[in-house]
């Protein structure tokens, strides 16, 4: 039964009216000094924030749940609500309660969602917070990304695979899409993103062009170079529409829109980004490449590094510019230290100037902006003296914005409060009226002290004091001990347990003067501060350019520090199709070694003519995967513009890195290990080029031995005989049979990761050497893992039997059957023994074609436990 709205209190009627406009959002409703939530919102809020849930009657309609918190706690609580996946509508009082005798007017001033947030408490300093939009066009998809905390705005279009790659790289915290395309979204990109559907009418060409042209104040998008990306433009238009719908209309800091050029960056599909653990890892407490490389001095530098890692360059000139600058800084450590001294003081200039555009910038943040501009001037001066082409070009583009810096120096107090409402923000000498009112305010308070001293002396009341409250204003307080000394002209206002409170005509006169001055001071300061913000906003573009340049310099200085500290070398990049790494190391693994232990380095050589594919065999745990990963990471770091962990490295530009490294089950979505493996491998084989680098690890192990060998063999053949491309490939496998490929295919070479056997023990040397390996040492690994000794002994017996039979030409299947038959003849069992029957049934039910070595060992362990019991 619907509630009778006539029985609701006026406050609840107002709440319900506003709530109806934001049905999917949690509404924070400002009531006095608190933000309150009601009903279902209150239940969610109390659970997420851990605050008390109460109920209160709001008229005859009955009780309603209620949970609230003080308004000054908004930032802390808002961050928790948004991180919990809530859309939060902030409803503020739009007028001063003192100015109205009726219900205060209220309205939503901001709708905060995971992708539309700018508060420091919500955002991560070292990563962007992108809102993404996807448009499903007939033949392709359009995508756009915006970060309102930095002003970045990007657009692209292409097939589903390319859009998926961009989504994995940008990792938007929220994605908006056509309401009618939910099924397609889930099929193509899964359910890993926080999404919000938008009505289809917003996804039109005319609307997108209109809203974008209006925002950028242009007649055409040609000047941005995106006018041909019609699908992308529609997605970009939806982004601005969504920002408008979430009450974000102050967007002066979004000054341009840039096209994501697929041809400018190395192709890293989502499997590679995941498998190489570039910026994230599925493993808990794992160290990523970003963790190791991030020695940046500013948050905006860290965000730039993040982009460079997932979008390495594939144009030689800009790569060599970066490498040259790093080399210069490595050779000038004093200069490096001088740069860092100033860059560390600049802080997060990118998000700081964005707050000016959003009109959310506090006085203390404006003061930080002023200090940053001083340090930018110092960086400019240092860079100009270097005579380094890159640094002098950077210096020419840096703009210290002297006029706005001077304005901030003149008009702001030297150490202003964080919040404008606290006052004393505008400096003395800026506004004559403000100075006069301040003199009245401070002078009046000094006069109050004089009144207190004078009246205490005149009345003989030594404990007399003057205080203030919102009810009486200023008053004189006298303890009961001295109340008989109070003059008759004082007016008593309040009696307390231990004292009396009085006012005098003189006190009231000065109260009006002081309070009137304080109210006027606040109004003038707000007006002057807003004017100052508008003047600073005119400099958003040059300050954003400064932030971009300083972030780039920060990353290059970070690379120089890494090169010095970690003994990285400058790679030689060219347009050949060689890959030659001498003494390569894994940048992450070497940092996690115990103190004093040296990383075992390895050489890798690949080309398109003599050694295109290397088959790497060797036991598990010997370091095959590490060699594959470090090769990919060295190439990637070089094309980012970083020095690399090696004794020497030279290679031609790589346009794509593909990896299939390690198990990556996706059982939660109904896909087996083998199915995931084949999906990833198919993606590689369908996208290879002549400049690709492919890293394959244990392909085919998710199925039976014969199937696995067949698939792995066919993949190696396919890569070797491809008519249009000769991708450089490292192929690690436990299938020793693949070594036979080198006998018939000239560009396939066999290598193995060497081991040493001593006293029936295996020592992993982790060194890549020419030639294939004949043993997997799986039983040795099982022993190291702590398998029971009897199980290991039995596994060795079985292995010896299988090897003898193999030399005699028997198949694996026949040999295993023979071993099973021997198990039936164990003398400890009688024919009627139920344990024997159980073991016999167990062995009969085994399918040896799909049995892996580890599963065989576990099955033997199970049999042994049956015998013991």
In CATH terms, what is the fold-level topology of the largest domain? Rossmann fold
Please tally the β strands and state the result. Answer: 27
Q: Which strand order do you get reading across the main beta sheet?
A: 13-23-24-25-21-26-27
Rg calc: 36 Å
Strand count, sense and barrel status of the largest sheet are: 7 strands, mixed
Helix content: 40-55%
Q: Report the CATH C-level class of the largest domain.
A: Alpha Beta
Report the principal-axis shape. elongated
Count of DSSP H/I helices? 28
Overall SS class: alpha/beta
- End-to-end Cα distance, whole Å, is 66 Å
- Write down the overall mean pLDDT: 86
The CATH architecture assignment of the largest domain turns out to be 3-Layer(aba) Sandwich
Number of domains as seen in the coordinates: 6
Strand content: 15-25%
Ranges where pLDDT stays below 50 over 5 or more residues in a row are 663-670, 824-831
CATH superfamily of the largest domain: P-loop containing nucleotide triphosphate hydrolases
Describe the protein in words:
The chain has 6 domains: 5-112, DNA repair protein MutS, domain I (MutS, DNA mismatch repair protein, domain I, 3-Layer(aba) Sandwich), CATH 3.40.1170.10; 131-260, Nucleotidyltransferase, domain 5 (2-Layer Sandwich); 294-401 and 539-566, Orthogonal Bundle (MutS, DNA mismatch repair protein, Chain A, domain 3), CATH 1.10.1420.10; 448-528, MutS, DNA mismatch repair protein, Chain A, domain 3 (Orthogonal Bundle); 572-770, Rossmann fold (3-Layer(aba) Sandwich); 789-868. It contains 28 helices and 27 strands. A 7-stranded mixed sheet has the order 13-23-24-25-21-26-27, with helices on both faces. β24, α22 (705-721) and β25 form a beta-alpha-beta unit. The two termini are 66 Å apart. Mean pLDDT is 86; it is low at 663-670 and 824-831.
